[in-house]
Amino acid sequence: MLFEVRTYRIKPRSQGDVIKNFAKGYETRKNFSPLSAFFYTEIGPLNQIIHIWPYEDLAARAAIRAEASKDPNWPPHLGDNLVEQLSEIFVPFPFTPDFDKSKTGPVFEWRSYTIKPHSVGGIKERWGAALEAREKLSPLLMAMTTELGPLNKFVHIWPYESLEHRREVREEAAAKGIWPPKGGGDELVFQDNKIVFAAPFSPQQ
């Protein structure tokens, strides 16, 4: 399993129209393959939409996209509201093989780390050992690393009931020494985060 994460920057004040047109196009696009999630940014880099597509492998991605391109409603008609596009291929960690729809928001924290080359193995090991205790406080939706696109990128997504819930959970995890996992801090190069919400038609809510 792999995920194509497509991040689009759109013009200010165009979010409502973009989401509406994307939803319209997705009505037929989902006949070829489903979305995992469709998010839009609320805090952090604004005017972004993020759509995440699961595929069995790259060959399946190519075949499905070729078929979907024959649909007159796809890609969605975004006009000049589309400013920039980024496509990345991610491979999920073994303990988050798919987007679990039972792990709901409505607030999602999207944390993106640039890590040192060859360090992902140690991160997987430490996360796997510490995650059970951390998920007793709140669930992890997804952890994945780039295979194609900007390399050495590690993304993890956390759903919360609210921003206050996020603050409470993070403070408790730190106070109890549950999270972040011990060790490996020297593997981090850059850290970014943003708060995203799910669009009404997103399978992940």
Describe this structure as you would to a colleague:
- The chain is of the alpha+beta class.
- The protein has one domain: Alpha-Beta Plaits.
- 27% of the residues lie in helices and 34% in strands.
- The chain is built from 4 helices and 8 strands, in the order E-H-E-E-H-E-E-H-E-E-H-E.
- Strands 1-3-2-8-5-7-6-4 form an 8-stranded antiparallel beta barrel.
- The chain is globular, with a radius of gyration of 17 Å.
- It starts with a strand and ends in a 7-residue tail after the last strand.
List the helices and strands and how they pair.
Elements: E1 2-10, H1 15-29, E2 37-43, E3 48-55, H2 58-68, E4 82-92, E5 107-115, H3 120-135, E6 142-148, E7 153-160, H4 163-175, E8 188-198
- The order of strands across the largest sheet is 1-3-2-8-5-7-6-4
User: What is the alpha-carbon Rg in Å?
Assistant: 17 Å
Name of the top-level CATH class: Alpha Beta
Overall number of strands: 8
In quaternary terms, these chains amount to single chain
So how many helices? 4
Low-pLDDT regions: none
- Tell me the span between the first and last alpha carbons: 21 Å
The largest β sheet comes out as: 8 strands, antiparallel, barrel
Which terms summarize this structure?
205 residues; alpha+beta; eight-stranded antiparallel beta barrel; 4 helices; globular
Q: Could you give a short description of this structure?
A:
With 205 residues, the protein is α+β, with helices and mostly antiparallel strands.
